[in-house]
Design goal:
heterotrimer, B: alpha+beta, Uridine Diphospho-n-acetylenolpyruvylglucosamine Reductase, domain 2, five-stranded antiparallel sheet, C: 169 residues, alpha+beta, DNA polymerase, domain 1, 2 domains, five-stranded mixed sheet, binds flavin-adenine dinucleotide, binds iron/sulfur cluster, binds FE2/S2 (inorganic) cluster, FAD-bd_PCMH_sub1 (chain B), oxidoreductase activity (chain B), oxidoreductase (chain B)
Chain lengths: 696, 343, 169
């Protein structure tokens, strides 16, 4: 338990500090960094899914007037570390997936770089590739751990006996699609190597982790590398770890000392080089008594990783703690395929892992004739079923109840496919959401008194999450001053080390460090500091609590309408109620919640990276064919939250809010579509062809 | 992108001469399709001749009561034209269902029907495609076929390696409406000016999938003529897509209906997203004309039109769903038009 | 191959020699240092590069600079003098109609363009009766803003922001 800060600035509806720059377009993103006469890069990509390069002809590209360098595995510098195979760029002639980087052309203009890249001729000895995920892939294996360090399999109790004793068993296979983060700002950088040190303006979710990776790969000291990133045009996980483009731009800069170079992946390239969420296959069983008490829950997950680097999405993890069950089994099996490297995508684990189970809960409710909300209430565990720990706070039931009230759930006719308004079949659905409250181990903040104001420095990142605005609110309350008297500087490795903006842990981690720094500052200098007084605080000096299970909870409600003629789905209403501890800024928090929920809607209805296993690539690799939700798909989206302050998580009483909105939404959509049509769509996305044959 | 020369001649005649003289020259309209293809390496011209400021940007009344639309009129301007909105709503709706506002402001009436297929393999120069690289084969067969054809294609699984295989669809919405309206294309070619029925502009792949239309090298579209068609005042465009806006059609239906009591006096029906051409549904029209204006009859007509449809299997479940989808969409569109007629 | 063009960007006239391949987007971003229009896809698929081009909202990524000799461009940064905001920009700020901000200049320009289109009676896919002038309903705004993807998915705040600016005009 910690002493909560008194909220004065925290909780206020303050306008974004970077808002004016963003609405004018003057906020500078990585590629846009003004530098003297930059050179431009364009990557060359492999056109086979597996094989070995037998020849690279760069002559025509090099002969092109204006081309400054052509780097390939034949002439690129040898990296200090190739431990991370994704970052071992241009180190060998082996091709591990189609679209892998096999070269880069650096030229005076972007047009010339692109032309040069077209002129590079690469020949391959192609090998047979294996890139199709199937539920019974012969190569399935159990990874040692799942992301980041959860147990691969957890078994509690006697599953078979409990299933046998169940009055009702729901047993189905669910699937989520391969999806790509697709932040609107592509993965991009500007880099300058002056012969001994590197400045990297990179679009990243963490300047320090980014620097660390670059230092490892290139064998540089941290003092030699500065990473700068004041603004990020979205990341959703894909900019949480550096990808090949970061190595490539650094190599290009080092090949041209003194010359700044720029590299932005094209949208098409992002489909093979910037991470993605694995498709998941979820075999699920729920066994329950007549009164709805769950006796057995099993979730066996099959998903993919790349042959060269493992990423094991922790899809089965949320089912370990969400509901009560007498016995439970959750497992993960992976197929290592000749595919691009999967990685983090908003709420890895929870997002896909709350699809199958939350649809299964709906199916179970229907089987039992129990209201889906009531079923969840009956299985709300008093303690964390996995660890036995008490919850720091768990208000899922309250979220469900308040959501039901606001949404108008009462009196809902549970029968599917019976409501019609004009050409629309109408239905409603609900699902729960959850996200762990995490704090990273490392982050430091400095507080300095400067010209009558308090300057806080920390290498944090604002991906649109509001850190520029919210961190000053925390600092103000930690220092006990007016928020206008606080300036926070982030996004630069010149500031003290900060953890990655990921796992909804940023505010928790950085805010805790800031609070420690403020405490130290006041301890040293009192309330009447002198110019230049400075103190520093580290997150590991903040109070921690190991006794409680810390999670944020929520409930999503959806109204779906299905065109009775064509099966087109519309979602006029999306409503979420969340219990995420103290909300530090309702304005930016609301944007986070509705953004997450709307992205969940996008996942439910649209997003699908269609894998073509014959050639080993995403067939629809651009934003015209890979659909994300547009404005017209979105109706009334509401986010509400409970007044919750959690004294166990941190001095702000705040849990993370960045990911929970996406969790559960797709299940709620699928459940609402079933209620509208009677068609149970267990495989995402819910497209019209999956509904058509069952329409009247 | 390979380098190219750029020219903006003084007149359309000169533009035609310049393109005719250079085998690897192309016209540029709004550029929203051509520039896309330049970047992808799908189009690799040596000379780009800008005609956007040369062809007419006017829409004028014709003597017989129709409209003559200059090739440089933007898609937005045409959709906003009061005469089009009143007399040819199917066309205004088709235009407004296409792309987005920013693209429609750039896209021209000349360029829109000549935009090329959105087949993902056509757009990816690392894959086989007979349309882009004649003789290389067709990667779409058995691939991602959700947006591919079911009409005018040879068999359920065509030969992917044959040089004449192409199962692509024409992506334009406007073109579907123009096909229904019996529009006329005004062309200025190396041999002079001529007109041709819009329905004859696009061609099936035949033995040369690289050619989308019957236009020859140097043929410039100068205008599109809409003949008078009083029944088009009751017409509509229904586009079914994977998201609510800013997406190409899975299928679309352009329809004009003239009902006399319970009988179909006349009908125009064209389909989009289903064939290499905007598909005029003549078979269905025949079945409908003079018959009852009932949902049952509409469905029967749709089924007649689709009797020869060939579902294409594919990696994402194929596109067989388009056949029931079309049947239902045609039926619903005609039903809605009839309901409009009685209300 | 090069060509000479003149271009007015945010009120400033530029006389330039450009590669015929250069798009207006790359010209602004990579040569003129005007990075208000963003590149999200480079293929007309996201709307991030939307500006006002010769009076209408348009994308810059598919516009060859040579083909727009003499054009006048207003980017989001040119909509209002330094220190001030255009009513659409103020509305976006008021409604927190963005997060990362990368789509935002394009959204803002698109909104400015659509309000002018509605003023001139231009219909949209959401206009039920094509023969009458459209009203600025939420459905109209959503449809007309659909050419601007927002991956942060601020749509539910963008629509009311545009409504606010529309109401104020
Ligand atoms: C993301 C995106 C989404 C889209 N969605 C849709 C949609 O939903 N529905 C739809 O219908 N369209 C859609 N489009 C396509 C758009 O409508 C076309 O790109 C546009 O209409 C083409 O017109 P343009 O003037 O820009 O043609 P250009 O790109 O200039 O030219 C297209 C072709 O026509 C030739 N050409 C141009 N003018 C003439 C002429 N006068 N005579 C002879 N040849 C000529 C060119 O050489 C070129 O081959 C979309 C485009 C994009 C980028
Ligand atoms: S369908 Fe046609 S356009 Fe597509 S790959 Fe085959 S030949 Fe090319
Ligand atoms: S960058 Fe122009 S539309 Fe995406
Ligand atoms: S605010 Fe991030 S993409 Fe719109």
């Amino acid at each position: 338990m910690t002493d909560l800060l008194e909220p004065r600035a925290m909780g206020r509806d303050l306008v974004r500090r970077d808002g004016v720059q963003k609405v004018r377009g003057t906020a500078t993103y990585a590629y846009e960094t003004p530098v003297e006469s930059p050179a431009f890069c364009h990557p060359v990509q492999a056109t086979v899914a597996r094989g070995r390069i037998t020849g690279i002809d760069t002559e025509a590209a090099e002969a092109l007037d204006g081309v400054l360098a052509v780097l390939t595995s034949e002439n690129a510098e040898r990296l200090a570390s190739t431990d991370d195979a994704e970052l071992a760029v241009l180190q060998s002639p082996d091709v591990a997936f189609r679209g892998q980087v096999v070269g880069v052309v650096v030229a005076e203009t972007s047009e010339l770089a692109r032309q040069g890249a077209d002129l590079v001729v690469v020949t391959y000895a192609e090998q047979e590739h294996d890139s199709a995920l199937t539920v019974d892939h012969p190569g399935l294996y159990a990874p040692e751990k799942v992301n980041p360090s959860y147990d691969t399999d957890v078994v509690q109790g006697d599953v078979d006996a409990e299933l046998a004793a169940s009055a009702v068993v729901v047993s189905h296979t669910y699937a989520t699609a391969m999806v790509h983060n697709n932040p609107l700002e592509p993965h991009a950088s500007t880099a300058l190597w002056d012969g001994s040190s590197l400045t990297l303006w990179d679009s990243t979710q963490g300047v320090h982790p980014d620097r660390k990776a670059v230092c490892t790969v290139f064998g540089l000291e941290e003092e030699q590398v500065r990473v700068v990133c004041p603004y990020v045009g979205g990341g959703f996980g894909s900019k949480g770890t550096p990808h090949a483009n970061v190595v490539l731009v650094t190599m290009a800069a080092r090949a041209l000392p003194g010359r700044p170079v720029k590299l932005a992946l094209t949208r098409q390239q992002m489909f093979s080089l910037a991470g993605y969420r694995t498709p998941t296959i979820q075999r699920m069983q729920l066994g329950a008594d007549r009164d709805g008490r769950i006796r057995a829950l099993t979730l066996d997950v099959v998903e993919q990783t790349s042959r060269i680097k493992e990423f094991a999405e922790q899809t089965g993890v949320p089912a370990r703690m969400m509901y009560t069950a007498n016995a439970r089994r959750t497992t993960h099996r992976l197929a290592a395929l000749d595919v691009p490297v999967p990685s983090w995508f908003r709420a890895p684990g929870e997002c896909p892992g709350m699809f199958g189970p939350e649809v299964a809960m709906d199916e179970l409710a229907h089987e039992l004739g129990i209201d889906p909300i009531e079923l969840r209430v009956r299985n709300d565990p008093e303690r964390d079923p996995e660890t036995g720990q008490p919850w720091s706070s768990r208000h899922l039931v309250e979220c469900l109840r308040e959501g039901a009230e606001r949404f108008g759930w009462a009196g809902r006719d549970p029968r599917p496919g019976v409501r019609r308004e004009g050409r629309w079949l109408v239905g409603t659905g609900v699902a729960s959401s959850v996200y762990p409250t995490m704090r990273q181990a490392q982050s430091t903040a400095d507080v300095r008194f400067e010209d009558g104001r308090y300057v806080v420095e920390i290498g944090a990142a604002d991906l649109g999450t509001g850190a520029w605005t919210v961190l000053p609110q925390i600092a103000a309350d930690a220092l006990g001053v007016d928020v206008d008297d606080v300036e926070v500087r982030i996004g630069d490795t010149r500031y003290p080390i900060a953890s990655v903006a990921g796992g909804s842990s940023g505010t928790n981690t950085w805010g805790s460090a800031i609070a420690v720094a403020a405490r130290e500052f006041r301890g040293k200098f009192g309330t009447d500091p002198r110019d230049g007084d400075e103190a520093s605080g580290q997150v590991d000096q903040a109070d921690t609590d190991d006794e409680h299970a810390t999670y944020a909870f929520g409930a999503q409600f959806v109204e779906a309408r299905v065109d009775v003629d064509t099966g087109e789905v519309r979602v006029p209403r999306l409503l979420g109620v969340f219990a995420c501890g103290r909300i530090l800024n309702p304005r930016t928090a609301r944007s986070q919640f509705i953004g997450g929920m709307t992205m969940g809607l996008s996942m439910a209805l649209h997003e699908n990276s269609v894998w073509d296993p014959r050639i080993g690539q995403v067939a629809n690799h651009d934003l015209a064919e890979y659909h994300v939700t547009v404005n017209a798909d979105v109706g009334d989206v509401q986010a509400h939250w409970l007044d919750e302050e959690d004294p166990y998580v941190n001095v702000m009483g705040a849990k993370g809010i960045g990911e929970i909105g996406i969790v559960g939404t797709a299940a709620a959509v699928s459940n609402a579509v079933w209620h509208a049509t009677g068609v149970r769509v267990r495989e995402l996305p819910v497209t019209l062809d999956r509904l058509l044959t069952a329409l009247p | 992108m390979k380098p190219f020369a750029f020219a903006r001649p003084g007149s359309v005649a000169e533009a035609v001469r310049e393109v005719s003289a250079e085998p690897n020259a192309v016209f540029l309209g709004g550029g929203t399709n051509l520039v896309d293809h330049l970047k992808l390496g799908v189009a690799r011209p040596d000379l780009v001749v800008d005609v956007r400021t040369l062809t007419s940007r006017e829409t004028t009344d014709t003597a017989d009561g129709g409209l003559l639309v200059g090739a440089a009129v933007s898609n937005s301007e045409l959709a906003a034209d009061r005469r089009v909105r009143e007399h040819y709503p199917v066309l205004a709706q088709a235009l407004l269902a296409g792309a987005n506002g920013q693209l429609r402001n750039l896209a021209t009436v000349g360029g829109n029907p000549l935009q090329r297929t959105r087949c993902v393999y056509f757009q990816d120069v690392t894959t086989a495609c007979n349309k882009r690289e004649p003789g290389s084969g067709c990667a779409a067969v058995g691939g991602y076929t959700r947006y591919h054809a079911v009409l005018g294609v040879p068999a359920a699984l065509p030969d992917a390696t044959a040089a004449d295989t192409c199962i692509a669809t024409h992506p334009s919405d406007m073109a579907v409406a123009l096909a229904a309206l019996d529009a006329v294309v005004h062309v200025l070619g190396p041999q002079g000016a001529r007109t041709l029925p819009f329905r004859e502009l696009h061609r099936l792949p035949g033995d040369d999938p690289s050619r989308d239309t019957v236009l020859g090298h140097g043929d410039l579209v100068t205008a599109i003529e809409l003949p008078p068609l009083p029944m088009a005042a009751r017409s509509t465009y229904r586009k079914v897509r994977d998201r609510a806006s800013y997406a190409f059609a899975l299928v679309s239906v352009a329809a004009a209906l003239d009902v006399d009591g319970d009988t179909v006096r006349d009908v125009r029906l064209a389909l989009g997203g289903v064939a290499h051409v905007p598909w005029r549904a003549t078979r269905a029209e025949e079945v409908l004309r003079g018959g009852p204006a009932t949902e049952h009859a509409f469905r029967a007509a749709a089924e007649a039109e689709l009797a020869a449809a060939q579902p294409q299997p594919g990696v994402d479940g194929g596109n067989g769903f388009k056949i029931p989808l079309l049947t239902r969409t045609i039926t619903a569109t005609l039903r809605d038009l009839t309901e409009g007629a009685t209300s | 191959m090069d060509a000479d063009i003149r271009l007015t960007v945010d009120g400033e006239l530029h006389e330039l020699t450009v590669d015929t391949r250069t798009t207006l987007l790359d010209l602004l971003r990579e040569r003129l240092g005007n990075t208000s229009p963003k590149k999200g896809c480079d293929h007309g698929q996201c709307g991030a590069c939307t500006v006002i081009l010769d009076g209408e909202r348009a994308l810059l990524c598919l516009a060859l600079a040579v083909a727009h000799d003499g054009a006048e461009i207003t980017t989001a940064n040119g909509l209002a003098p330094e220190g001030e905001l255009h009513p659409v920009q103020q509305a976006f700020l008021d409604h927190d109609a963005f997060q990362c901000g990368y789509c935002t200049p394009g959204q803002v320009c698109s909104a400015v363009g659509l309000l002018s289109e509605v003023d001139r009676g231009w219909p949209s896919h959401a206009t039920a009766d094509l023969t009458s002038d459209p009203e600025l309903s939420d459905a109209e705004v959503s449809e007309r803003m659909s050419g601007n993807l927002c991956r942060c998915a601020a749509y539910a705040t963008i629509t009311p922001a545009v409504q606010q600016a529309g109401g104020a005009r």
